[in-house]
Specification:
The structure holds 2 protein chains of 2 kinds.
Chain A: H1 2-15, H2 17-25, E1 28-29, H3 39-58, H4 68-77, H5 82-109, H6 118-141, H7 145-158, H8 165-173, H9 180-212, H10 229-240, E2 242-243, H11 244-270, H12 292-303, H13 306-330, H14 342-364, H15 376-379, H16 386-397, H17 400-403, H18 420-423, H19 426-435, H20 449-460
Antiparallel strand pairs in A: 1-2
Helix pairs in contact in A: 3-5, 3-11, 4-5, 5-6, 5-11, 6-9, 6-13, 7-8, 12-14, 16-20, 19-20
Chain B: H1 2-44, E1 51-56, E2 65-71, E3 84-91, E4 97-101, E5 112-114, E6 119-121, E7 128-129, E8 135-137, E9 146-147, E10 149-152, E11 155-159
The chains are: A mainly alpha, B alpha+beta.
Chain lengths: ~475, ~170
């Protein structure tokens, strides 16, 4: 025993653990920083989970445009627990983004970004961007037809950057077209460059905690004054501060472990998303969709007025990131309590409602044509009158049903036309079909007079 | 005398510091430039375009639009199926062909030709194009880009091209 103790002392003396690392772990924290402070560390736990499961996947994955798909099939269907591994990495990504989002909302609501923690917030903004980039590049490494087409969608978005857009797009996909260089690059981004950046910024983010301490929970009326804050904070810690380890850290450990257990449980129960078709860019019958955390933005692209869209794709992110970075520089003192900053609550509610509405819209994708609608003939009584019957057939054949619903079948991009005859006259119908509108093709050049007549009669009879 | 000595000592230190910073920078650049080269490689390589045979005249009926598949110019050996590209080929008459990009000008998603409706439709955000590639509805800012097609001794050939990228001014 004393021998072991001796070895321990020797190690501690030579390594200096007690002298250098322990004081960091035991740095004093405000005593009332409780459960609302666990989300940052939960994000870090998720990141470590991603690193670990990422290493596991890298042991099985082929980072090659040619063979990645086969290795993914192997991981998903053959490798020992490969399915669970992929599942953990998939849900872990969602967990990390979710936790980062909640952490950010907490910091914003309690204005913890104010003096002297401006750089904590700014480095956090970069960490959020890197995390989203990791999510997106990870989606590309799932090298199926969705991965292939998602990379093209991303290239098109980069294409909107002024002057160097096309160059950036080529750089992203590794050439003029997709090919051998594409996946190698996504792999390097996802496995080396961005994780490296995240490690770097997490290190800085944590160093900031040591430098400035974690923010104390706000109290209405207790203002941040850059002249006196540091002195006040250190006095407060001297009086009532508790050592981070173990007095506060147990909450982080407990919550982080729970998050990881939930992620693993989700992976076991649901598994990773199934692979779609092979990564062959000539397979075009596919509907690229991003994972949920980018679906809101993808949905926004469908709903924005087309005339401003090309600008918004570039300027929107620049403004958003600029505003986030500017926030602590513009407002670094004064009130921190959300009770005295009701606007912060309004902002959070608006952003959350906006994102969730877009997310729901993204899942429904009402703007997408319904390429394979159920046959109209099964949903309604087939009219006996030849002209009506012809109109009904044309309504399906000409693609009307892709976007218009009728008696419960068809797309939902345009209005439901089950009873259109009640409100529209035959003449109105004819004009609309011939001329179209912003959301509808002008069918004038594509229908014979007989066909147009049959369609109008058919629609006019929808009472 | 002593003061001058201190001055020389300080000069020496300053020189050595500058030397170490300079040399360090040089070493970093020497090692970094090839890495940068690898990062920018796709921009520095000239691939060149080529004609690819996609079928014979008999394969394409007049008035139809069909999906053609071909290989990109000079694909690397490990490109596998990613070396493939596709285009929509429309035959308007005995001699006239039009080849359209499969990439929607909105965000690049693959548009589908719907034969009976006589329209190209995009699954992502509902972009629609007429048979001549002009925008019929939805968010696309431009017509579908066209590729060069030619008929050479009965063979229909398409000119390969980079994936069309829509810019901000569109």
């Amino acid at each position: 025993m004393s021998k072991l103790k001796k070895i321990g002392h020797w190690l501690d003396d030579r390594t200096g653990f007690s002298d250098t690392i322990l004081p960091l772990l035991k740095h004093p924290v405000p005593p009332d920083a409780k459960w609302s402070y666990v989300f940052g560390s939960a994000t870090l736990f998720c990141f470590l989970l991603q690193v670990l499961t990422g290493i596991g996947l890298a042991l099985l994955y082929q980072p090659s445009s040619e063979t990645a798909y086969q290795s993914l099939q192997f991981i998903t269907h053959k490798a020992v627990m490969g399915n669970v591994l992929r599942g953990i990495h998939y849900f872990g990504a969602s967990g990390m983004i979710l936790m980062a989002g909640v952490h950010m909302v907490r910091v914003y609501l309690t204005a913890s970004y104010k003096y002297p923690r401006e750089m904590s917030w700014i480095s956090g903004v970069f960490l959020l961007l890197f995390t989203i980039t990791m999510g997106f590049t990870g989606q590309l490494l799932r090298w199926d037809s969705n991965g292939v087409w998602s990379s093209i969608v991303a290239a098109e978005q980069l294409g909107r950057v002024p002057f160097i857009g096309t160059t950036l797009a080529r750089l992203l996909i590794g050439g003029d077209t997709l090919g051998a260089q594409s996946l190698s690059r996504f792999f390097a981004y996802h496995v080396f460059i961005f994780p490296g950046l995240i490690f770097l910024f997490v290190g800085f983010h944590l160093q900031q905690v040591i430098r400035n301490g974690i923010s104390e929970p706000p109290k209405p009326g207790r203002l941040v004054d850059p002249k006196t804050y540091r002195q006040w904070y250190s006095n407060m810690l001297e009086k009532v501060g508790r050592p981070f380890w173990p007095d506060a850290a147990w909450r982080d450990a407990l919550f982080g472990s729970l998050v990881i257990l939930v992620i693993v449980a989700l992976a076991v129960i649901f598994g990773p998303p199934e692979l779609t078709k092979p990564p062959d860019p000539s397979i075009i019958y596919t509907t690229p969709t991003p994972d949920w955390y980018l679906l809101s933005i993808f949905a926004l692209f469908a709903l924005m007025p087309p005339s401003i869209e090309s600008y918004v794709i570039f300027i929107g992110p620049v403004l958003a990131i600029g505003a986030l970075i500017a926030l602590p520089l513009l407002s670094n003192k004064g009130e921190r309590s959300p009770r005295r900053r009701p606007w912060s609550v309004v902002v959070v509610i608006c952003v959350v409602v906006f994102m969730i509405s877009l997310l729901i819209a993204g899942f429904q994708a009402p703007w997408s044509p319904e390429f394979k609608p159920r046959p109209l003939a099964a949903a309604m009584q087939v009219p006996e009158q030849p002209v009506l019957k012809k109109g009904m057939v044309l309504f399906s054949d000409k693609g009307c049903l892709y976007c218009h619903r009728m008696h419960g079948v068809g797309g939902i991009k345009g209005p439901d036309l089950s009873t259109i005859g009640r409100n529209w006259t035959a003449e109105q119908l004819r004009i609309q079909i011939v001329n179209g509108s912003e959301g509808m093709p002008a069918y004038g050049g594509m229908l014979t007079n007989d066909e147009l007549h049959a369609l109008v009669v058919f629609l006019d009879a929808r009472q | 005398m002593k003061q001058r000595e201190t001055g020389t000592e300080e000069d020496r230190r300053r020189f050595l510091m500058k030397l170490s910073l300079g040399l360090g920078g040089l070493a970093a650049a020497a090692a970094g430039i090839p890495v940068l080269g690898a990062l920018l490689a796709p921009l520095l390589e000239k691939t060149g375009q080529t004609w690819r045979t996609v079928g014979t005249l008999r394969d394409f009926e007049i008035g139809t639009t069909s999906l053609i598949k071909y290989e990109n110019p000079n694909p690397q050996a490990w490109a596998g199926v990613t070396a493939h590209s596709a285009a929509w080929l429309r035959r308007d008459s005995e001699k006239e062909f039009l080849a359209f990009s499969v990439n929607c000008t909105h965000l690049g998603c693959p548009v589908r030709w719907e034969q009976k409706a006589d329209l190209f439709m995009c699954p992502c955000h509902g972009g629609v194009y007429y048979r001549d590639g002009t925008v019929a509805a939805g968010p696309p800012p431009n017509s579908l880009p066209q590729y060069a097609v030619r008929v050479k001794s009965g063979q229909v050939q398409i000119r390969t091209a980079p994936i069309p990228i829509t810019n901000i001014t569109a």
